[in-house]
Write a structure and sequence with these properties.
The protein is mainly beta and 161 residues long. It has one domain: Sandwich (Jelly Rolls), CATH 2.60.120.10. 12% of the residues lie in helices and 39% in strands. The longest helix is centred in the N-terminal third of the chain and has 14 residues, at 2-15. It is globular, with a radius of gyration of 16 Å. It starts with a helix and ends with a helix. The relative contact order is 0.21. Residues 1-23 have low confidence and may be disordered.
Amino acid sequence: MRKLFSTCAALSLAAMPVIGIAQSGSTQISITPTSSQKVIAGAPDRFTGTVRVQSLFDAKEPARSSGGQVTFQPGARSAWHTHPLGQILIVTDGVGWVQQWGGPVQVIRKGDVVWIPSGVKHWHGATPSTTMTHIAFQELLEGTAVNWLEKVTGEQYRLMK
């Protein structure tokens, strides 16, 4: 079942339009070199622990897709949050966890593709002993791609072990 879900999610991602990385009104291919991509530390009100966020592309009208690469050090995690149009995570390295509010923690590993439906309260991050990197894709709805909520408490996180 897990492989079927990952395959279906990957096929869904492959069918998504790639206009989200195009420049508005441009008729030329655009390349953003790694050296010009923004890399910041995860904001303390949105993340716990050491998190590196690299913006890969921003939504440019008329497209509304944005994407970034996020690396979580052991024990690091996002706050609870939702996405108005959902989110896709592609795990590119390591092992981590994802949890939807009220549901069990799920282990995610390199190569896994995670689909988080619109409006679902969730968090994701590294396990206590491993790093995890994922590429995140989301779309803006009325200028908003994410609604940040409260932080995952140490007690909530420890319950995942």
